[in-house]
Amino acid sequence: MASTFTQLHYHCVWSTKNRQPLISQNIEKSVWAILGATAKAHGMRLAVAGGIENHVHVLLEIPKTLSVSEAMKRLKGGSSNSINEKSLTGSGRFGWQDGCAAFTVSASRHDEVRHYIENQREHHRKLSFEDELVAFLERHRVDFDPKYLWG
Hints:
CATH class: Alpha Beta
CATH superfamily: Transposase IS200-like
């Protein structure tokens, strides 16, 4: 084959620093827009972002030249810098947690994942972020030690 063809889509989830409720409804659209602009600046494509006060979900296309960890480093670092430069959270300093969870998404499941991300507020009326993440890890058969999950 003369070329390499990829379609690398991920559902990524991470929290604010110490799971603090920093993303109010007043600023969430600005935060999602910043995530989109940051992704674009680094050659990624953000299909959708959503979340609630203490965490975010994104459906992200990552180019074959970037590892997931490098993509997350660029997306989280660049977006937190922009959020702080714009003082979106007031006088407090905004930051993301160190790690993330990332799950591959096939093209046939894009609509389902998009719907899930767009309806985070409704979803979290019934389920905490902590319970949601554990359920994701278990459903995707990701090995984890609960004592190291929340660092």
